[in-house]
Write a sequence for this structure.
């Protein structure tokens, strides 16, 4: 029988299995029918003996060690279709009963294969990567990875001693996907993909679609059955308006030491703080190992979901930071994934991202699937309400950060990255269509046009863009002594060209600390490097928060840069005052009152509502000098009452506000017909409500003006009469003199 067995076997293929060169292991491993026999073959390098056990057969069959590397085989007379298992005794003395991985069909069904090949899969995370699975009543883990140019891909882990020869995956030439169902394998296992590329190059790679990372390996958690309680919120999200946007940015310092577990009270505390302070949105910064490993581990995933759930219970929308612009240059990542630049570009002039790592190739269907599915994953599994897309400047322009000869023009000879632009547009259209009520924002530093315009209007389709010019100009203003007000006024020239968010974000804090990341990680503030003492820095901080609230644009502040008392009051005013939100996107909602580079550090502007009585006068004194009486030319006469000052005692300052309204004076000043004289504490921002005069008051004012004009006319008439009298006397003298001479 042994001779017959050996004749049935394909020794070149067996050799390929043994040496790890076989990309189609299912053609040799598993159960096959040869002539009138059923041939069983398996490769278990760590096995001492292997016995075949067939269902409903009391007899077991010791398998022949056909190759001392661990290749076992046996041929049974007849075509046997019954279930079977292998009883394995390992060299270390362990014993186990295992199912054969190579008898299961793991190819994608026709519909999934078509959407994959066309690039239209948007939820590939559901069938790619590693998932607990059950086939024909047998539980295990199903692995799938895209590596069309690899010679062989294997699943490796503790379960097979990290031996790439043990579990080679089955290749589907139609999709370029390697797949394998490993029966009896449980979750909570660490794993990698061992990729054998052409040229005998072997790599160990993280799972691109892996949800978790542990000890530097991809990690399959147990299926998490998180109990969401935000159904009402999610059902109503499509009806939400994002006209008000006052965001609080937090990062993953909250998730330290979660391996030991976490207390739900942490999430509840953050949500309560955001609600009490009046924030409408929370931006969560997450440290990702790869696109689908955002949770890092199941504790972090559960915590994130708990946090989102708590925030939704407070009616607060949640955005996740997400970066589709580049991927890691680390060897275990997407770099040269299957021996080729699978996710990137072959030409190095297109390959490198000047900020970090490698550019994605957005012209490749499966890359677009990967990125879109990553975004979709956050909405489906973490109930995200939006994404903040990072660093798109690096991908919108082919020559970003590059010298001549280091980049390739597009098909029209330009520097725009058409593939990236198309991807961003398609992504925004997809997300807004499938998740009504969500928002997307971005940061772009190269003045790319129409970032927040709809795609149908040739825009990129984002809802918001961070105003980098504002953040940089304001930082320069603080560092330059807070007197060059042009740094505060010039950026209003473009304030209505996009839908901007004014930020005091983590990036701004890092820039303010001269890009000392360690210092920021230790809790450094945005205000630490300005040349003031500690008490003055607190004044500047309060004034800054008030200034950002009053300026046109949405708001975002990073953890630790706000102050509970004043931030709460400012949030309430932002929501309550129509002047701060109704005409926020329209130039008619803003007017400069005083913006001269006079060295006083004072600027003033009017925020307008749809009706005059909603107008708010904002006066900023960014100097260290207090002014008891500061005169301003005012465009609207009436009564002005200070309703807020950043230096009020309730916020930690020492200014006592008066409830008395101040009347304008009929005196022309700075080209305006009326003046207003106000007191300005040092390093402060004040808001004044506006009350137009009543008809009676306007009549009295008109009467006063008429009386004033009458008196001025009387004086002028008296002056003219005196001039005429003098002129008459002069002429009389001249005539008398002429008469005497004659």
């Amino acid at each position: 029988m042994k001779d017959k067995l050996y004749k049935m076997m394909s020794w070149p293929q067996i050799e390929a299995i043994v040496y790890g060169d076989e990309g189609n292991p299912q053609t040799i491993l598993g159960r096959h029918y040869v002539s009138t026999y059923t041939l069983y073959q398996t490769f278990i390098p760590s096995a001492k003996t292997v016995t075949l056990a067939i269902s409903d057969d009391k007899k077991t069959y010791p398998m022949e060690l056909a190759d001392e590397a661990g290749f076992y085989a046996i041929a049974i007379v007849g075509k046997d279709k019954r279930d079977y298992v292998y009883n394995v005794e390992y060299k270390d003395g362990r014993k186990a009963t295992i199912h054969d991985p190579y008898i299961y069909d793991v190819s994608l069904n026709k519909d999934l294969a078509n959407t994959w090949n066309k690039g239209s899969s948007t939820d590939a995370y559901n069938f790619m990567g590693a998932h607990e699975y059950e086939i024909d009543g047998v539980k295990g883990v199903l692995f799938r990875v895209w590596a069309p140019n690899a010679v062989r891909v294997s699943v490796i882990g503790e379960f097979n001693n990290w031996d790439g020869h043990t579990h080679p995956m089955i290749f589907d030439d139609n999709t370029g996907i390697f797949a394998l169902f490993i029966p009896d394998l449980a979750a909570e296992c660490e794993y990698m993909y061992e990729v054998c590329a052409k040229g005998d190059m072997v790599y160990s790679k993280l799972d691109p679609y892996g949800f978790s990372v542990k000890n530097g390996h991809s990690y399959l958690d147990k299926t998490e059955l998180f109990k969401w309680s935000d159904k009402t919120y999610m059902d109503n999200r499509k009806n939400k308006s994002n006209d008000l946007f006052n965001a609080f940015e937090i990062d993953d310092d909250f998730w330290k030491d979660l391996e030991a577990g976490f207390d739900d009270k942490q999430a509840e505390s953050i949500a309560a703080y955001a609600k009490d302070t009046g924030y409408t949105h929370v931006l969560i910064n997450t440290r990702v190992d790869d696109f689908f490993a955002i949770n890092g581990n199941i504790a972090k995933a559960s915590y994130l979901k708990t946090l989102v759930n708590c925030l939704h219970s407070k009616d607060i929308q949640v955005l996740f930071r997400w970066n589709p612009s580049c991927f890691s240059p680390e060897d275990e990542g997407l770099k040269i994934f299957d021996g080729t630049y699978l996710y990137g570009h072959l030409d190095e002039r297109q390959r490198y991202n000047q900020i970090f790592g490698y550019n994605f190739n957005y012209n490749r269907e499966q890359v677009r699937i990967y990125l879109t599915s990553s975004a979709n994953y956050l909405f489906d599994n973490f109930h995200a309400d939006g994404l903040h897309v990072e660093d798109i400047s690096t991908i919108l322009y082919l020559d970003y950060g590059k010298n001549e000869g280091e980049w390739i023009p597009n098909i029209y000879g330009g520097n725009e990255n058409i593939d990236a632009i198309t991807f961003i547009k398609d992504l925004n259209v997809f997300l807004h269509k499938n998740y009504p009520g969500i928002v997307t924002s971005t940061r772009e530093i190269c003045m790319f046009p129409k970032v927040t315009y709809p795609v149908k209007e040739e825009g990129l389709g984002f809802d918001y863009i961070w105003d980098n010019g504002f953040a940089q100009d304001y930082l320069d203003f603080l560092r330059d002594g807070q007197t060059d007000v042009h740094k505060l006024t010039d950026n209003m020239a473009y304030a209505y060209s996009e839908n901007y968010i004014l930020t005091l974000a983590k990036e701004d804090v890092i820039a303010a600390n001269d890009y000392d990341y360690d210092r920021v990680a230790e809790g450094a503030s945005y205000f630490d490097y300005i040349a003031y003492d500690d008490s003055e820095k607190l004044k500047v901080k309060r004034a800054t928060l008030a200034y950002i609230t009053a300026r046109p644009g949405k708001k975002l502040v990073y953890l630790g840069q706000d102050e509970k008392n004043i931030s709460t009051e400012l949030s309430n005013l932002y929501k309550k005052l129509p002047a701060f939100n109704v005409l926020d996107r329209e130039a008619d909602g803003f007017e400069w009152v005083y913006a001269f580079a006079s060295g006083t550090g004072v600027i003033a502007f009017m925020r307008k509502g749809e009706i005059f009585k909603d107008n708010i006068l904002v006066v900023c004194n960014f100097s260290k000098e207090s002014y008891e009486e500061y005169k301003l030319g005012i465009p609207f006469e009436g009564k002005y009452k200070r309703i807020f000052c950043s230096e009020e005692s309730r916020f930690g300052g020492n200014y006592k506000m008066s409830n008395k309204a101040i009347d304008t004076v009929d005196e022309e000043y700075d080209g305006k017909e009326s003046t207003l004289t106000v007191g300005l504490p040092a390093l402060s921002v004040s808001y004044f409500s506006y009350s137009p005069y009543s008809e009676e008051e306007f009549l009295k004012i008109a009467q006063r003006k008429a009386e004033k004009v009458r008196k001025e006319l009387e004086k002028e008439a008296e002056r003219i009469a005196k001039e005429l009298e003098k002129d008459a006397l002069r002429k009389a003298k001249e005539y008398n003199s002429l008469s005497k001479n004659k």
Remarks:
- The mean pLDDT is 90.
